[in-house]
């Protein structure tokens, strides 16, 4: 401690002030997170105490009339729509990033890049309105019947395409989500691909590699950590999206067995029912859902961070 005193006393007062301000700004983030967690935990405690944490998370019942609440159906809807949207979005986003960085002529790179970034700037309420009045009718009239007549005839997976195509279902919500998260993965993947040293790519071309081989064996492996970071960002956006999904998913608290079934997610339940919570236990259960979503987001971020740290140690640049 004594050895640090001369350094601190000799340091410029403005530097000390700057360090204090930046440290305070950093601490506010931690304070906000702890504050949010505290509010969610305290407000949800009556419901968790009544139903039990495990039973609340695993129960399939959500019945405001009988005051019996469980989060399993909302968790299921959240996970299914998020995973399906990522499955649809990631190949498209990476393909867009590869086209912009490696294939597109210079006069196209700018407009396509701007168009992708504009997708991220569109408010979610507009996505929801477009999904309800444009995409849902198209899905119910053309896409979903076509899927039923093709994939719906394949054994085993045909169960996913049963039911009446109405367009207000898991598939439509997942398509909307995929469109919304494409810009995040595509933009970050594009920036990561651009960081690949030109000399490395030129060396591969000099050895006779094709453009496909350069992308597959040089660009993508070099940029994989950045691409993974973009996917994690998209995952976070998909988990927390509310309004766009609320327009086209319905609010059905059941475990859906078909992609054409209406369902519910945590965010949709919160948006649709918060103003209807006229009983304390009802309101507490909604806070419990919010706490579950907070825990899911935190766990996702933590797991992703661990994977990135291990990958950086295993494949240092």
Description of the molecule:
It is a single chain. This protein is mainly α and 317 residues long. The chain folds into 2 domains: 51 residues; 244 residues, MetI-like (MetI-like fold), CATH 1.10.3720. Helices cover 75% and strands 1% of the residues. The chain has 12 helices and 2 strands. It has a two-stranded antiparallel sheet. The longest helix is centred in the N-terminal third of the chain and has 39 residues. 33% of the residues are buried.
How does the SSE layout of this entry go?
Elements: H1 5-10, H2 13-51, H3 53-58, E1 62-63, E2 68-69, H4 72-103, H5 106-121, H6 124-149, H7 170-194, H8 198-206, H9 211-240, H10 243-249, H11 266-273, H12 280-314
Antiparallel strand pairs: 1-2
Keywords for this structure?
317 residues; mainly alpha; MetI-like fold; two-stranded antiparallel sheet; 2 strands; globular
Report the CATH architecture of the largest domain.
Orthogonal Bundle
Radius of gyration, rounded? Answer: 24 Å
Biggest sheet details: 2 strands, antiparallel
Which percent bin holds the helix content?
over 70%
What is the CATH H-level superfamily of the largest domain?
MetI-like
Determine the CATH topology of the largest domain. Answer: MetI-like fold
CATH top level class name of the largest domain: Mainly Alpha
Number of individual domains: 2
**Strand residues, percent:** under 5%
Report the strand count: 2
Alpha-beta content class: mainly alpha
Low-confidence stretches: none
Mean pLDDT value: 88
Strand order of the largest sheet: 1-2
How far do the termini sit from each other? 37 Å
